[in-house]
From TrEMBL:
<protein>
    <submittedName>
        <fullName>Unannotated protein</fullName>
    </submittedName>
</protein>
<comment type="similarity">
    <text>Belongs to the short-chain dehydrogenases/reductases (SDR) family.</text>
</comment>
<dbReference type="Pfam" id="PF13561">
    <property type="entry name" value="adh_short_C2"/>
</dbReference>
<keyword id="KW-0560">Oxidoreductase</keyword>
<dbReference type="InterPro" id="IPR020904">
    <property type="entry name" value="Sc_DH/Rdtase_CS"/>
</dbReference>
<dbReference type="GO" id="GO:0016491">
    <property type="term" value="F:oxidoreductase activity"/>
</dbReference>
<dbReference type="InterPro" id="IPR002347">
    <property type="entry name" value="SDR_fam"/>
</dbReference>
<dbReference type="InterPro" id="IPR036291">
    <property type="entry name" value="NAD(P)-bd_dom_sf"/>
</dbReference>
Length: 253
C-alpha cells in the first residue's frame, strides 16, 4: 500500500461485479475510503461502506450519495464500473426495451451519478471521475450493436464531462478494458459460441488468440489503472482513454 489515495472518498458503482470488487479493494489498498455500491450488496470487500444503489433510478443514486456523505464526508471521486451486456442479438430482432436497458445502465447512469456527485466535487474544489468503457467502444461488433454503441457513447460523454468540468478542477477519464477474466467475458463467449454453433472452449481459443499477451486479463489490472488516475500522479490527465487490454487492438483492426 502506497497511501497515494489517502484522504480520498471514492464512490464505486458496479462494486459487486468481477471488475468492481477488484476496483474497491485496489483503491482501498492505496488508502482511499471506498463506498461500494451495486444493485446487490457487495459483500466481503475492503470497502468502508457498502450500499445498494440502482444507477437507473435517480432517487436511489441520490440516497446512496447522501448516505455516503453523512457517514464518511464529502466524496472526492466516482468510479463508474457498472455495465451491462446483452446476449448476441441480430439487429433485425433487437427489442427496443433491451436497447433502452443497455443505454440506461451503461450511459444514463453516469449522468445520474454526475447529477448527485459533481456538486460535491465542485464544492470541494475538485475531484476525479473515471468511467469504464470497453475495447468494443472503438468499433461495432456483429450481434452486440447496443453494447458497442453504448460504450462509444460513454466515451463521448466522458470527454464532454472532462471538457466541461476542467474549470472546476474535476478530471474525467475512461478506462477501456479488453477481455477481462470475469463472468461478463465468459457469458459473452458462451453467447457467441452458441450463435456460431461451436463450443465455449473453441470460442475462447478464437478470442484469446487475438490478444498479444495471450489471455483475458486479471480484473485487478483495471483497479491498478484507476488507482493511478485517481492519484495526484495523474494531475495533468483528463479526457483520456486508457486501454488495459493486453494489446488486443493491435490484432483486431
Ligand atoms: N469483463 C470484461 O471482459 C469487460 C470488457 C470490457 C469492458 N467491461 C466493462 O467493465 C465493467 C465491469 O464489468 P464486469 O466484468 O465486472 O461485469 P459484471 O457483470 O461482473 O459487473 C457489473 C456489475 O454492474 C451491476 N449492475 C448492473 N445493473 C446495475 C444497476 N442498474 N445499478 C447498479 N449496478 C448495476 C451488476 O449487479 C454487476 O455487479 C462494465 O462496465 C463492462 O462493460 C468488461
Amino acid at each position: 500500500m502506497s497511501g497515494m489515495l489517502n484522504g480520498q472518498r471514492i464512490f464505486v458503482t458496479g462494486a459487486a461485479g468481477g471488475i468492481g470488487r477488484e476496483v474497491v479493494n485496489g483503491l482501498a489498498a492505496e488508502g482511499a475510503e471506498v463506498i461500494a455500491t451495486d444493485v446487490r450488496l457487495a459483500e466481503g470487500t475492503n470497502a468502508s461502506l457498502s450500499l445498494i444503489c440502482d444507477v437507473t433510478d435517480q432517487a436511489s443514486v441520490n440516497a446512496a450519495v447522501a448516505e455516503a456523505n453523512a457517514k464518511l464526508g464529502p466524496l472526492t471521486g466516482l468510479a463508474y464500473v457498472t455495465g451491462f451486456n446483452h446476449e448476441a442479438t441480430p439487429i433485425a430482432e433487437f427489442a427496443m426495451e433491451m436497447w433502452d436497458k443497455v443505454f440506461d445502465i451503461n450511459v444514463k447512469g453516469v449522468v445520474r451519478c454526475a447529477n448527485a456527485i459533481v456538486p460535491q466535487l465542485r464544492a470541494n474544489g475538485g475531484g476525479s471521475i473515471v468511467t469504464t468503457t470497453s475495447w468494443w467502444s472503438y468499433s461495432g461488433k456483429a450481434y452486440f450493436s447496443a453494447y458497442c454503441a453504448s460504450k462509444a457513447a460513454l466515451k463521448s460523454l466522458t470527454q464532454s464531462m472532462a471538457d466541461e468540468l476542467a474549470p472546476n478542477g474535476i478530471r474525467v477519464n475512461n478506462v477501456a478494458p479488453g477481455n477481462m477474466n470475469t463472468s461478463m467475458h465468459t457469458d459473452a463467449l458462451e453467447s457467441e459460441a452458441s450463435k456460431r454453433g461451436i463450443t465455449f472452449e473453441e470460442m475462447r481459443e478464437i478470442e484469446w488468440a487475438k490478444v498479444p499477451l495471450g489471455i483475458a486479463g486479471p480484473p485487478s489490472a483495471i483497479a491498478d489503472c484507476m488507482a493511478f488516475l485517481f492519484s495526484d500522479k495523474a494531475s495533468y490527465i483528463t479526457g483520456g482513454t486508457f486501454d488495459v487490454n493486453g494489446g488486443v487492438l493491435l490484432r483486431s483492426a
